[in-house]
Amino acid sequence: MFNKESDTSDTSTRQSRIAPSLERMADWPWWLIVAILIGLIIVFQIVTNQRMSNIFAAISTGIGITLRVTFSAYIIAVVIGLFVGLARVSKNRVIFNIASFYVEVVRGVPILVLLMYIAFVAVPLIAEMLGARTRDFPNELRVVLGLAIAYGAFESEIFRAGIQSIEKGQMEAARAVGMSYFQAMRHIILPQAIRRVLPALGNDFVAMLKDSSLVSVLGVEDITQITKLYAASTFLFFQSYSILAFIYLTMTILLSRLIRTLETRLSIHNR
Amino acid sequence: MNNSTNSSDEIIVIRNLVKKFHSLHAVDDVSLTVGAGKVVVIIGPSGSGKSTVLRCINHLEVPTSGEILVNGVKLTHNSHDINAVRAEAGMVFQEFNLFPHMSVLENVMAGPLIVKGMQREKAREIAESNLARVGLLFKKDEYPNKISGGQKQRVAIARALAMEPKVMLFDEPTSALDPELIGEVLEVMKGLAKDGMTMLIVSHEMSFAREVANEIIFMDHGKIVESGPPEELFERPREARTRQFIGQILR
Ligand SMILES: Nc1ncnc2c1ncn2[C@@H]1O[C@H](COP(=O)(O)OP(=O)(O)OP(=O)(O)O)[C@@H](O)[C@H]1O
Ligand SMILES: [Mg+2]
């Protein structure tokens, strides 16, 4: 979206130079211009203002944790999603029902509640069963697990829809040359389905980056948590949270662009 | 039953096949045999159960009752047998169903590589010789969306042949094609017939059937109405229903 808007701004500025009119200016992506201006002001402040650069330095120590939580939870979520998605198209009623139970329950509970449930109920229970102590499971591991389980349900729906969007004749043709169901899935159906759902998977990657902020509730020191603590001790709420929002926005924009580049690279590569 | 005497020269034996979809009898007590090297063509109006008979042979549909033997192997629900039979019976669909994410060559290699676990080099050799057989070796690196409908169907034939099947099943292989592309597909099929391939074909291409078929089967409402050599069935149909249908398609 970001990309598209900036493209139109290019063409409309070019056109308005030839025939300047108020109507053209109304078509400008003003929101983007304003956003870029605010961004520039924040960057300028960070560079020139000692207090702002202190805040930025403090918050950015959490970027590593935010990225680590995002990436690891996302990778686990995609793996869960793939297997649960396969289970959801299975003809085996037991497998189908177990998978459906997971998906429907998880989709019906707020992620925050799910995170707390896993961290404070499920993990202690598992710890007890294993004869370990709850604090042997670091908080970061618990929140990664929670986010992965939540997003696993979303990704499974993406995979299910992708698999079901492949024409019935593909499975039949694969079976007709003698492939087993799993061979046909692996070599014929999934490669096509995954290509179709890549944009949706990419969107959820960005969404995961934003939802990783929820881990602050459990005291994991990601950028949100650090900002919370910093603002509370310095009373610089406006500055701290502005910088936090700025960091998230920058990361999501960069990540979206990266994903889009990968997608086009992939689609060119495959024909 | 005397399968032991049958199995050597009968590639397909169907006895009292019934396939119901809920209360609908799509196939209603059909028995037929296809001998080694024979070409049998099934004709009949839409919905008469022609596709369903073919799809039961390689278990894309599970028969409700009856018995099917392919090259002497009886079809049961056992998945091992099913995969074995599917490898013996190549199938060509009306809609081609090529794998769009694979090149033409990869489409033909898929069976030998994935099902038979063959070495890449060996699979490539087999794929290339089968593409040459359908006259499309020069298109081996194209993707399916870059070739014509007739070429797609010829690739689909090569893909089935690469598994070295005992019998080829064709379900209206030319019905989805523009008229000018039908000929090239029929030529390939005639070539197969000449090479002694056993074939069971659903098709309404009358002149083709007349030229290559040993037997024509006319189906209606899930039953075989009558069958016989093409000259007999086309020229002197015994049943009024057959006469009417042939009159329709010749018009
Ligand atoms: N999967 C299915 N579920 C329900 N009914 C089906 C199914 N497949 C086929 N049928 C029905 O079974 C009957 C026979 O279908 P079939 O496809 O075998 O006919 P056909 O002779 O091949 O017709 P056509 O010439 O249109 O291809 C039809 O009435 C059809 O609607
Ligand atoms: Mg049909």
Pick out its properties.
heterodimer, A: 271 residues, mainly alpha, MetI-like fold, 12 helices, 83% helix, B: 251 residues, alpha/beta, six-stranded mixed β-sheet, four-stranded antiparallel β-sheet, 10 helices, 10 strands, 40% helix, globular, binds adenosine-5'-triphosphate, binds magnesium ion
Give a structural overview.
The complex is a heterodimer of chains A (271) and B (251). In chain A, α6 (93-107) crosses α8 (139-164). Residues 1-13 of chain A have low confidence and may be disordered. Chain A has 12 helices and no strands. The radius of gyration of chain A is 23 Å and the shape is flat. Chain A has 271 residues and is mostly helical. Chain A has a single domain (61-269), classed as MetI-like fold, CATH 1.10.3720. The longest helix of chain A is centred in the last third of the chain and has 33 residues, at 237-269. Chain B is an alpha/beta fold and 251 residues long. Helix content of chain B is 40%, strand content 25%. Chain B has 10 helices and 10 strands. In chain B, the strands form 2 sheets. Chain B has a 6-stranded mixed β-sheet with strand order 6-7-8-3-9-10, sandwiched between helices. Chain B has a 4-stranded antiparallel β-sheet with strand order 2-1-4-5, covered by helices on one side. In chain B, β4 and β5 (73-74) form a beta hairpin. In chain B, α5 packs across α6. The longest helix of chain B has 16 residues, at 179-194. Chain B is globular, with a radius of gyration of 18 Å. The model of chain B is unreliable at 1-7 (pLDDT under 50). The interface between A and B is medium-sized, with 20 and 27 residues. Magnesium ion binds at residues 50-51, 171-172 of chain B.
